[in-house]
Amino acid sequence: MTKKLSDILTKFNCELISGSTDIVISGISFDSRKTKNGDLFIAVKGTNTDGHKFIKNAVKNGAVAVLAENIEENNLPTTVLKTANTSSALAFASAEFYDNPSEKLKLIGVTGTNGKTTTATLLYRLFLKAGYKTGLISTVKNYINEKETEASHTTPDALTFNKLLKEMVDAECEYCFAEISSHGIHQNRIAALKFSGGIFTNITHDHLDYHKRFSEYLKVKKQFFDNLPKEAFALINIDDKNGKVMLQNTSARKYTYGLKNFSDFKAKILEMHLDGTLMSVNETEFWTLLTGKFNVYNITAVYGTAILLGENPENVLQIISGILPVKGRFETLKINEITVIIDYAHTPDAIENVLKTINELKKDKQKLITIAGAGGNRDKSKRPEMAKAALKGSDKLILTSDNPRNENPEQIIEDMFEGIKETNQKNVLKITDRKEAIKLAVMLAQKGDIILITGKGHENYQIIKEKKYHFDDKEIAEYFLKTI
Hints:
By secondary structure, the protein is an alpha/beta fold. 32% of the residues lie in helices and 24% in strands.
């Protein structure tokens, strides 16, 4: 598709330095390596790189226009524009280029530390089963109806986000459910999108490598609700102590869900098993194949959202009862009387919640072996807390690699080990090789025991240095359960 340059500059202020805006562009790029003939190149200052350094490369690759915050290049053979904030400009230019697709369907954003993927994915599955053409933007996969596309970030960059939404509109999708990360909010990836609703799951210790202080992390999450339009809804977990903070300055219609406090959508846990939960919402009982209190919160958020979007309560509960767990989210595997649970938990709070659920359900003689690691080049302050939480609910803890990236995996494990008291260290093993850690857990397990593998969940890769290697926790656990 093509657009007149002047037509996509209408929602933000910019100054024409040279050339003309009366030209046609065939695309937008912010990565000079991906710039093609006819593109508008927007120089964005990222966390690790600054697009301003690559303006010449973008022009060399065919950019016909450049938008930047500061112009050091002289005599560029293109149209040159200047604006105060190129990350915001990228969002608005992308929305205009793709004909503002978020205004042509109902876009629901899910934000919070834990539960985003499960909540968004269950909503997508629910509305798809209810007969609607539906899209999903998530950590695991992106979907346009039943067509699957790879996901590289929890919340994609503004250009990709709008492109995906445009494809959904073209595919006649009525709804899109999207995970909204704090990075995505802070980096203006969603700045030009119109949301029909927002869901807040919870907020706990995470991403302080990026936000530095918890107060800043909280402020960024709140910003999403502050910007919701008045015709949208804001649905928050009232049991989270910061839930009400999200509603302080929003113009949206306010609703709550929870298990403990009075709320618009009040849930109760009636029975819980490793393979599912009998629960109720607003005094209507139903069975779900998901388990854990955290999943009861997720399902209640899903139910509340569906009702706020006008769905029939009875039909919603009937569909929820048949929906399978999300890959890598308390996903169970039982072979030779040993149960393996694979979960994406990668924060102290998430690990604590998963272990609490397992301990509430396991029998006295069942031992629980937990495998835990922490990602490299990420928030270091949570590492000892993760190990502390993991051992607290386990009979044996194996500390291993997650995605070490450019950090020394042994050092990451040592950082985690600092959270273990000296008196408890005898119950902790350190195995750097994740495959060997899973093998050891299977060897240590007796019939009836439970192995919890945390951290990677749905991921089928491991990142070591700059390379991605195939690695699937479930695949490896299944192999050793059958061969040892």
